[in-house]
Write a sequence for this structure.
């Protein structure tokens, strides 16, 4: 497995070891000796040559991209950098699950997505609180239908819905190297690069 090129894009403070290359725009991310870290603006370009990576992992980044320009550009970059039939694992906030939490128990929703936020008591109406809680810095929210659509538009195939720590389309044991974040409300899919 050490000969696989594995990229953890927009990693934030969640850096993977085991040969993963962790990339984020922030330069101040603390990392240990066994972790490889690069700083790059992923909204512009992934700093790798064409057909380089076997696996790309992206967690809770896509929703921060403008859906009609930045998101397609980023997914096209993922396709460019991935080898043919390389695997992209992507995790985003699950809009369907978040909406169900709100519809079934608004108090739980606000506890999880609002009350502990500094801005919550500054906003006077519950409707604004809902809007801010759901979009909180996000430019798009995805469910399986909308995520599948943007991935297919970028040329990805074999889009597979996953649970946390599922092997999915990854080689055996690689999924165990991934540290899932935002477990309570994530939509996770694997897909294959479909370029020839």
């Amino acid at each position: 497995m050490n000969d696989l090129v594995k990229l953890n894009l927009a990693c934030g403070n969640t850096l993977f070891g085991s040969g993963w290359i962790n990339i984020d725009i922030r330069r101040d991310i603390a990392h240990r000796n066994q972790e490889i870290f690069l700083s790059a603006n992923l909204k512009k370009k992934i700093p790798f040559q064409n057909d380089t990576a076997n696996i790309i992992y992206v967690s809770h980044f896509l929703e921060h991209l403008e859906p009609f320009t930045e998101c397609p550009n980023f997914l096209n970059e993922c396709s460019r950098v991935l080898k043919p039939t390389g695997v992209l694992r992507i995790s985003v906030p699950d809009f369907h699950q978040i909406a169900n939490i709100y519809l079934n128990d608004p108090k739980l929703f606000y506890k999880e997505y609002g009350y502990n936020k500094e801005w919550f008591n500054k906003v006077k109406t519950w409707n604004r609180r809902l809007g801010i809680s759901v979009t909180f810095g996000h430019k798009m929210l995805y469910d399986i239908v909308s995520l599948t659509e943007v991935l297919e538009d970028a040329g990805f195939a074999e889009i597979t819905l996953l649970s946390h720590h599922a092997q999915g389309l990854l080689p055996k044991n690689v999924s165990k190297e991934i540290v899932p974040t935002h477990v309570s409300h994530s939509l996770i899919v694997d897909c294959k690069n479909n370029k020839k």
User: Anything to note?
Assistant: Residues 85 and 193 are 5 Å apart (CA to CA). The chain has two domains: 6-93+142-193, 95-138.
